UniProtKB/TrEMBL annotation:
The gene is gluA. Keywords: Amino-acid transport, ATP-binding, Cell membrane, Membrane, Nucleotide-binding, Transport. This is Glutamate ABC transporter ATP-binding protein GluA. It comes from Tsukamurella soli. The keyword Membrane applies. It comes from the Bacteria. The lineage of its organism: Bacteria, Bacillati, Actinomycetota, Actinomycetes, Mycobacteriales.
Length: 242
C-alpha cells in the first residue's frame, strides 16, 4: 500500500532522512519509534507530500506520489492524516467539520455526508456532540473528531503524527482505543508515537529510527524484548524506566 524507496530529505545542511526504504503492505499497522530529531514526523509527512523530498520515490497503492496539482490532491484524498493538534475548523460545528471534505472533494450529497458523518462520530464515541463547536469539547474528544473527519474520506491509508502528545494523560486512552479499533478492522496505518503500550498492543511492525535512518524494522515482541542495536537498547532503557 505504501512503498518508499531511497528517500532523502534535507532541511538546509541538516540531513533529516537518509536513504529511507520502507514498504507497508495493505492492512498493516506500522509504528515508528525513535528519539526526538530522528526524522519520524518528517517521514510521516512525506507520505502525503506535506514535506517534499529531495530524491527517491513514494508510491501509494501503486501510484507514484505526484509533486503538486490536482493529481496530488486526488491521491491525498486517499491518505487520511491526524496531527498532534486537532486542526478543526473553530467556527463550524463538529458534524460540519466531518462532512465538509466529503462534500467538497468527493462530491457527496449533504444528506449522505451527514449520515456517514454521524455514523463515524458514533463510532468514535462523540455523536452526542455533533452540533457543538470544537471549543466546547475536551482535547480527547476533539482528537476523536479529527479521526472521524479523516475517516469520512474513506482513505486507503491513515497517518498519525504524535496524535496523543498534546493531550492530558487522562485523555490519551480514549484516543488510543479508537486507533486500536481501526487497527483491528484492518486499516493500513503508519503511526508516529511515544505510546509504548499502543505500540506493543496494536502494531504489526516497529520501525525504529535514529539520526535520520531506519535502525531496526521488526515485530513488536522482538523489538521490546531483544532489540538488536545499541541505539534501540538505549532508547528503550530511557523510555521504559520512566
Amino acid at each position: 500500500m505504501i512503498e518508499i524507496r531511497g528517500v532523502q530529505k534535507h532541511f538546509g545542511d541538516l540531513h533529516v532522512l537518509k536513504d529511507i526504504d520502507l514498504v507497508v503492505p495493505r492492512g498493516q499497522v506500522v509504528v515508528i519509534l525513535g528519539p526526538s530529531g530522528s526524522g519520524k514526523s518528517t517521514l510521516c509527512r512525506t507520505i502525503n507530500r506535506l514535506e517534499p523530498i529531495d530524491s527517491g520515490e513514494i508510491r501509494i497503492d501503486g501510484k507514484v506520489l505526484p509533486d503538486e496539482g490536482r493529481p496530488l490532491a486526488a491521491l491525498r484524498a486517499d491518505v487520511g492524516m491526524v496531527f498532534q493538534s486537532f486542526n478543526l475548523f473553530p467556527h463550524r460545528t463538529i458534524i460540519e467539520n466531518v462532512t465538509l471534505a466529503p462534500m467538497k472533494v468527493r462530491k457527496a450529497s449533504a444528506d449522505d455526508a451527514r449520515k456517514r458523518g454521524m455514523e463515524l462520530l458514533r463510532r468514535v464515541g462523540v455523536d452526542s456532540q455533533a452540533e457543538k463547536s470544537p471549543a466546547q469539547l475536551s482535547g480527547g474528544q476533539q482528537q476523536r473528531v479529527a479521526i472521524a473527519r479523516a475517516l469520512a474520506m474513506d482513505p486507503k491509508v491513515m497517518l498519525f503524527d504524535e496524535p496523543t502528545s498534546a493531550l492530558d494523560p487522562e485523555m490519551v486512552g480514549e484516543v488510543l482505543d479508537v486507533m486500536v479499533g481501526l487497527a483491528r478492522e484492518g486499516m493500513t496505518m503508519v503511526v508516529v508515537t511515544h505510546e509504548m503500550g499502543f505500540a506493543r498492543r496494536a502494531a504489526d511492525r516497529i520501525v525504529f529510527m535514529a539520526d535520520g535512518g531506519v535502525v531496526e524494522d521488526t515485530d513488536p515482541e522482538s523489538f521490546f524484548t531483544a532489540p538488536k542495536s545499541r541505539r534501540a537498547k538505549d532508547f528503550l532503557g530511557k523510555i521504559l524506566s520512566h
